[in-house]
Every structure is written in C-alpha cells, then in structure tokens.
Amino acid sequence: MNQSDSERIRSVIEGMGFEMTEVEEEASLIGVVACSVRQKAIDKVYSKIRKWNQWKNEKPLVTFVSGCILPADEEKFLKLFDLVFRMNELPDLPDMLHQCGVTTEFSAKHPLNDLHREDERTDFWQVEPTYSSDFDAFVPIQNGCDKFCSFCAVPYTRGREVSRSSEDILAEVQKLVDQGVKVITLLGQNVNSYGLDKKGEEISFAELLRKVGELGNASGKDFWVYFTSPHPRDMTRDVIEAIADYQCLAKQIHLPVQSGDEKLLRRMNRNHSVDDYLQIVSDIRELLPTATIFTDIIVGFSGETDEQFEKSAELMELVKYNMAYIAKYSPRVGARAARWDDDITPQQKSERLARLSDVLKKTSQEYNDALIGTTCTVLVERVDPRQEGALQARTEGKLPVRIVDAPATLVGTFQTVEITSAAALSLTGKLV
Asked: Is the pLDDT of residue 121 over 70?
C-alpha cells in the first residue's frame, strides 16, 4: 500500500517540475512513506532524518513524511521533518510545499488540474500514479480497517474502512490491461470487506472480482490479478468461486491466520475460530486445487503459552503453507495489546520463529519437490544479480523461480519453463 501511495505522491511532485533521482545526496526534496506497524521500520526513518537534517547545514533541503503513521510517531516527526501529511491530504501537497519555501509551478498536465474534490477521505485516489513498473501495478480498492485486532496499529494509522468507487477501480484496471501490464494487485487493508461501508451503493468484493474477470475475458490478453490482504472473517465462498471462474484471477490466496490457538485468537480480537479458518482452506482446496496458500503468523504474542504456540505449529503442519510471513510480536502504541505485558522473552520468540520456519521449509519443500519435471508459466521479473545469464521469475502461485541460461530481454514477459530442481522456498527451471 505504501508503494502504491508513493506512486501517487511522485505524480504530484513531478507535476511541480521535480525530477526523480536515485542519489539522496543530489536531492533538494526528500520524502519517506513510512510504516508505524513495525518498530524496525520507524527506527529506519529516524536514522534517515537525522542524516538529512545534518545535510541542511550544507545545502537547501526540504523533507516530508507520510504513510501509515501512529499519532505518537506523527507528533515526533513534526519536530524533525519540514512537512508531515496524511495520504488523504495529498491534493494539498503543492500548497504545503509552497509554505515550506518550495517555489515551483504546476505543469500544464499536472494530475491535480482535473481533480474534483468530493470526499476528502478518497480524493487522493483520483491522482493518476506514476507506476514504478511497466508490467506490474498496484490498484488500491479500499483503505483503512474496522477490525481492531488487539496487536495491530493499522486502524490508528489508516483510519476506518472506506471503499473506492468500483467504476474508478475498473477504469484503472482496464487502462493497465490496455497498456499490456501483466500483473495487477488489488490493494487494501481488508480487501474482502470492500463495499461493506457502502451497502446498497457499491458492489461486493466477489462481484468486483467477477467484473475484473469479465474485463479479462473481453480483453483477450494474458495477465494475472492478485489481491492483498484479506481477513478470514470476510472471506466468503463466493470470493473463491469467482476466482475459480476466471482465468485472469490468479490462483494464489494470502490468508493471514496469526495464531492456531482459539483462546489466543480471541485475545487477538480476530473474530474467527480455527474451524472457521480451516473451512476457508477446505473451500480453497476444493474449488482452487492448484492454488498456493500464504499466511501471516505472530509468535510470542502477549501471554502465548508453549501449548498455544504448539497449536500454531500444528496448524501450519495441517494447512501446508507455501509461504508464511512469521513475525515476532512487538507492542505498538495505540493498539490494545500495548497495555498488556510483553511477557515472552526475545529468546523464546526467536526459538518459536525458528521452529515455525522449519515447519514452513518442510511443507514447502514437499510441494516444490512434486513440481520437478513439470512445466509451468512464469512471469520474468528481473535479471538475477547473483548469477550471470540467469533470471528471476514467479509462477502464478507466486513461487520464485530462477531461470538459467536466459536472455535479459525476457524481463516483463510470460515464459514457459520446466522445473529442474527445488529448494525449500524456491525453484529452478529452464526455458521450454
């Protein structure tokens, strides 16, 4: 989501006459799209701004910060950055920069020239992004979260759930398909709660997927559509049925579980049971037999006992995830759990993370080994920096594939490869 926001911020700034540079020392305007959801990310922001503020002794420099920022971090940033703004304030960014002494003029094609202010929460979505890739694009469909998981800061950084107009979403998807984009990711903090804030006015998430699928059928083009992130509470069977019915809807599901223990799920305020979650997995296996399943899991959450942790390990063994993003719990100011004791030691958290990583490697290795000798379609993403003459690609299920003896001209294209070997979390193949 932050990368998608950055693409819209870039459009506004470049419309004021700025040019992008990859070298920080050359810049006269530097910004960060930050994330308060993890402390490590915020620590990096503090490290950057200290360096940039030292540069101000030697040259003119304006700094700004936006993104997912907790009120406590925002208050501190106000003392360190020249400008702090939220994404819904993006249309006002030129005026804010002028107040900071930045004197530039709008270009004739500035993205704000045709913006019609209707809803201050969503006006920024009207800004056309400057996509960072020619073949891989993000399309935001929803912002904010109403779930209030006890460990999570997102409702306090992004606000309550708000859905983007389906008409605007489909128009952006159509434009990207016409441009030949190969991968489109629908974005939101809770994508499958899309439309629930506008019942009777907007379509549901399943209906949105079907409209995207129909658009794909009509286009006659090959592309994959993903979405992230869903919440198990809102993952209904009709969403999975929609994915099954349309070729362009990628057969890959990211389904965060966070814990395999019932009591801990209640303490996390997840509002779904383990049985609820496993029913969704069962529906995926039934309707999307080729789909890969990814998840998020927290280890060391406040009060997590050894027995509760073991249930997370058992769930991972049962579901056999292709990928799991395993995080050590850290309290976030504003989230309800921040008031509770962080009573699992760093060593215990590391041990639990290592244990779940071993489970993941085992189940992923079994899945990947079964692919050896088969052929599959992959999207070539980049040249492999570690091996000359090799490329990095991904399957429809987002499994990474290293292709040997292949030309760099294939980046951004679909190719058919034969899988020749498998590691726990990656594959190797050759062009067919």
From this structure: no
